[in-house]
Amino acid sequence: MAWIIGVLKRKERVNDMVTTCGAYIIYNELILIVHSTGQPMNVWGIPKGLIDGVETPEDTMYREVFEETNIVLADYRHKLIDLGTVKYKHKHKTLHGFIVILDEWDYADVYCSSTYSTKEGIIRPEVDAFVWLPVEAGISYLHYTQKRLFNENKKKFERFLT
Question: Considering the domain 16-91+102-160, what is its CATH architecture?
Answer without folding.
Answer: Alpha-Beta Complex (3.90)
